[in-house]
Amino acid sequence: MFDWWGRAVVRARWAVLAAAVALMALGATWGTGVFGQLSGGGFADPASESSRTAERITAELGRQGADVIVLWSSDTATVDQPAFRDPVAATVAALRQRPEVDSVTTFYDAPAPHLVSTDRRATYALVQLDGVDEDARAEAFDAVRPAFDAPGLRTELGGAVAFQRYANEQTTEDITRAELLSMPVLLVLLVLIFGGLVAATTPLLVGGLAILGAFVAVRLLNMVTDMSIFAINVITLIGLGMAVDYALFVVSRFREELAAGRDTAEAVRRTMATAGRTVLVSGLTVALAMASLLVFPQPFLRSMGLGGMAAVLVAMLAALTVLPALLAVLGRRVDAVRVPVPWRRGAGRGRPAHADTSGAWARIARSVMRRPVPYLAGVALILGLLATPFLRAEFGGVDERVLPADAGPRVVSERIAAQFPGGTIAPIDVLVTGVPADAVGPFADRIAAVPGVTGVRVAATRGASTLLAVAYPGEPTGDAARDLVGDLRALPAPDGARVLVGGRPGVDRDLLDSLGDRLPWMALLMAGATLLLLFLAFGSVVLPVKAVLMNLLSIGASFGVVVWIFQDGHLSGLLGFTSTGFIEPSNVILMLAVLFGLATDYEVFLLSRVREEWDRTGDNTASVAAGLQRTGRIITAAALLLVIVVAGFATGAMAYIKLIGIGMIVAIVVDATLVRALLVPATMRLLGRWNWWAPGPLGAVYRRFGIRESDDPAGPGAGGAPEQAAPDAVEPEPAGPESRHPAFIG
């Protein structure tokens, strides 16, 4: 198929490039309009009890709770003095005249002790904004924000809408800064890696096309399902990262074929027949890893999955169509505008495939394969130590502590917790329906007697519906608050009544339960897709299983480092964040999908060349050495470039952006060095010819439907018996009569 595809792209190169220009123009105009259409929420499970509680409260009692908390304070005046009371009264009166504001509740309207600080120098108002959803209320908040200031008093804004708005703005700022910092460095490194300016621009062109094309795809998806604004973040990261990987692999192979003396058309054809198939397998594998996020009911994670799939698939298609069409036009001019790089010693122009099996990477592979057991034990020990902290991981929801210490929503939350009676801005909501309000009193008394409850008050009542607000000590995202939600849900309801328990702690509890229930399905989808695609690519049942295990090792090391830093608080001063004592689980799940895809991407790059050499020679040891020699530099370069792309995340102000950045850097570095360069050669040496084992029926499936790396007929690598070489020597493995055994397919 891909042999034909390479010829077709060469013939239609100008039409393909014209279509690419049209897509980029569409993405830069209509596609970027997606920014104003995506949602900022979607973190809750719509089917959870907490979501049902919120819906019933709104339907039966009207919307409750504050969108914005306005905290006014003074260093000199108390809330009872005119110098404090009059500015607040004037500000509140003006707010109530604004169409963006539905209601304002203050201490002066209905004196309530929890609205005034213990030193009486601060008070806060509860503001409800106009708007049917989170996005509409966010727009209302932007419009009314300046009107919250009270003259002569210090004004700070908190609450759900203020927190979400600040978090979105800061996240966007962090990612934009990361991209601005990484792009110049990325271009310089690409020039050094390729040794020429023209070749160095190809990954950026493919990356730009992947990002803009994904914007178009997401805007189309937004017409049929709600998409989160955070899908844009994963599009930028995955789109650019995959584009760089695929362009590196394709352009490097194209230059190899040119160096072998082939003309441009033949070089493109052979590049598509080899590297093109690798890109296809990698793209499908990474896309299916991102698709695993679709098993979760949270729109936030589903949006990230759809956005990531769009970016990967567009990057893959661009690398299989636009890039070879561009190479067909450039030909040997791909090496134009040379940049002298002394240490490359002419490597930039590429070397013929199979021309060099004695380079540095091949020497590393042979060193590992001479002593596979010590290497295997040493790397496993290092990865085990890195992963160990993850065994004590604790999970919890996002709260204001992910913001910088001076951020208004965080300051408001911390001051209310420390200085006001009740100490929480996020009570547990208990909705009692089906009985009159006077019948709820005994049930409220039972709630008050539950250990951990510090107060119960009637927040709203109408007809046969009553809302109780339950106070508790500590953080809304802590274990105690979530456990208390479980205790309240376990209480028997009053006769004839129905009880629903929600609020912010309920949302967190339901989120953790939902993610935990769906996580095994996510893992099954990722592993199953990887096993199937890698079997079709390499014709082995052993290598796909080994690839999944290798992925888990590098991801486990990353998660262990994340727990050690962000949960335990190590390096918090250096990195500028506040440890909460737990990890937000949706970030871990997102990292799992992205990192599993990236790790498989590097595995496919390496094994594709190993399989090609195995088909050509039938020598397992020589195939591994040659495969690592031909891909080691590419994998290392791809990893370095991806590290540059995500490194800016670690400098962001938002704690969860730092977490994702550092976690990905650790996983990428570990995977590209310890795993691919050391662990893979060691295990492949120990397995020998068993690397390529498949039962007879599966061997027939591969011969019929396999996605081969080369269209050439299978050579001596058509099979063989398990290797029995001595561990202190690396000898070739001649293909004897046993190599025709159907269990070892070629």
Automatic annotation (TrEMBL):
Keywords: Cell membrane, Membrane, Transmembrane, Transmembrane helix. Residues 204-329 form the SSD domain. The chain crosses the membrane at residues 180-199, 227-251, 272-296, 308-330, 373-391, 519-541, 548-567, 587-607, 634-653, 659-679. It is found in: Cell membrane. It is a multi-pass membrane protein. Its main location: membrane. It comes from the Bacteria. Residues 711-746 are annotated as: Disordered. Belongs to the resistance-nodulation-cell division (RND) (TC 2.A.6) family. MmpL subfamily. This is MMPL family transporter. The lineage of its organism: Bacteria, Bacillati, Actinomycetota, Actinomycetes, Micromonosporales.
